[in-house]
Amino acid sequence: MVACHRMPYPYAVFSCHTTTAALYAVTLAGAEDGTKAEAMTACHKDASPGIFWPTYKKLGVAPGTVPVCHFLPQDSMLWMRK
């Protein structure tokens, strides 16, 4: 699977990388009015400390011991085999 994230340039530039993350389609619902939205979340089971270090620190767990999940921004793309 390849994930591509939009970069902050005045024209379309994407940073793409391969990943072994597990992907899930989830439905998010607003607490106030019940508005729903579909989103993709990626869960990294073997995430190294790197950019996830603040997450591990907040959760109080050692790097690589639990999956780290995050939502993909609207401008991201995923390429995978069917």
From TrEMBL:
The keyword Signal applies. The keyword Amino-acid biosynthesis does not apply. Keywords: Signal. Residues 1-82 form the BURP domain. Pfam families: BURP (PF03181). Signal peptide: none annotated. It comes from the Eukaryota. PANTHER family: BURP DOMAIN PROTEIN USPL1-LIKE (PTHR31236), BURP DOMAIN-CONTAINING PROTEIN 7 (PTHR31236:SF31). This is BURP domain-containing protein.
